[in-house]
From TrEMBL:
Originating gene: folD
The keyword Lipoprotein belongs to this UniProt entry's keyword annotation: no
One Gene Ontology term of the molecular function aspect: methenyltetrahydrofolate cyclohydrolase activity
Name of this protein: Bifunctional protein FolD
UniProt domain Tetrahydrofolate dehydrogenase/cyclohydrolase NAD(P)-binding: residue ranges: 139-283
Domain of life the protein comes from: Bacteria
Annotated EC: 1.5.1.5, 3.5.4.9
UniProt source species: Rhizobium metallidurans
Reaction equations catalysed: (6R)-5,10-methenyltetrahydrofolate + H2O = (6R)-10-formyltetrahydrofolate + H(+); (6R)-5,10-methylene-5,6,7,8-tetrahydrofolate + NADP(+) = (6R)-5,10-methenyltetrahydrofolate + NADPH
Subunit structure: Homodimer.
Lineage: Bacteria, Pseudomonadati, Pseudomonadota, Alphaproteobacteria, Hyphomicrobiales
Gene3D superfamilies named among the record's database cross-references: Leucine Dehydrogenase, chain A, domain 1, NAD(P)-binding Rossmann-like Domain
Keyword entries, A-Z: Amino-acid biosynthesis, Histidine biosynthesis, Hydrolase, Methionine biosynthesis, Multifunctional enzyme, NADP, One-carbon metabolism, Oxidoreductase, Purine biosynthesis
Length: 286
């Protein structure tokens, strides 16, 4: 029997835990953790993401500081806002929604965030600290994936893990987290030879590519655990449907456990952002 890893339910448990912690902090210290979001421009998908992040921040009892800037905003203006938020004691986490308009250098903007407030874990200091085993802010999507894997397995020690996709946001930090949990990690990408062979050897398969249903069930090792980060919109039978990077129907016949799309990794990402904001608050106070 294949286990369905229910990210939606896991995310709810995590948010409930955060809400309790925030209520405790509020009653004992009289303050709450705060998350500032910065959205530049009018990308509709980004607007939805930022709205959801802000809504869930408020639902857990934390403070949300939403900054929505026009698409003509200069890089200097964004950097000035970040400097203000870095210095603001009410703000414990700062998130700059990506992608930024082309005239703004995203690396420069992200690296202007105070690393302790970098709740996305994208600052070069946090990336370096993760790579060297120091206490870093961890990127939200890989953090959600490793939480679900630890919950499912207990120990990940000695497992063969394959990460497909090498983005800075998901693939690379995911590989680092699996390595830190003592997996034997392989990273695959568009130039990898014999992807099928690598898949067949993987006890843990993490897909983070963004190509609808690219992995068929018969590439998966029987009993493997599949974490599907892909969220792809496809037109099927006249309607729009969300599918992962794995062909769920055939994969779920072979895998030991699998995350569905939607309802798997997706809900964990925002829950982990809230978790990181709480963590940033606690580290600032300790
Ligand atoms: N755009 C797509 N994913 C992300 C994310 O995890 N964080 C931010 N800031 N922007 C994104």
């Amino acid at each position: 029997m294949t286990v369905l890893i229910d990210g939606k339910a896991f995310a709810k448990r995590l948010r409930d835990f955060i809400s309790l912690q925030v209520a405790d902090i509020k009653s004992s210290l009289g303050v709450v953790p705060g998350l500032a979001t910065i959205l530049v421009g009018e990308d509709p998908a980004s607007e939805v993401y930022v709205r959801n992040k802000s809504k869930q921040t408020i639902e857990t009892g934390m403070a949300s500081f939403k900054h929505t800037l026009g698409s003509a905003t200069s890089e200097a203006e964004v950097l000035k806002l970040i400097a203000q938020l870095n210095a603001d004691d009410r703000v414990h986490g700062i998130l700059v929604q990506l992608p930024l308009p082309r005239h703004i250098n995203a690396e420069k903007v992200i690296n202007a965030i105070e690393p302790a407030k970098d709740v996305d874990g994208f600052h070069v200091s946090n990336v370096g600290m993760l790579g060297t085993g120091q206490k870093a802010m961890l990127p939200c999507t890989p953090l959600g994936c490793i939480m679900m894997l630890r919950d499912h397995f207990g120990s990940l020690s000695g497992k063969n893990a394959l990460v497909v996709g090498r983005s800075n946001i998901v693939g690379k930090p995911m590989a680092q987290l699996l390595l830190a949990d003592d997996c034997t990690v392989t990273m695959a990408h568009r130039y990898t030879e014999d992807l099928e062979g690598h898949c067949r050897r993987a006890d843990i398969l993490v897909m983070a590519v963004g190509r609808p249903e690219m992995i068929p069930g018969d590439w998966i090792k029987p009993g493997a655990t599949v974490i599907d980060v892909g969220i792809n919109r496809v037109e099927r039978d006249g309607t729009t449907k969300l599918v992962g990077d794995v062909d769920f129907k055939s994969a779920s016949l072979v895998a030991g456990a699998i995350t569905p799309v939607p309802g798997g990794v997706g809900p964990m990402t925002i829950a982990c952002l809230l978790f990181n904001t709480l963590t940033a608050f606690c580290r600032a106070k300790s």
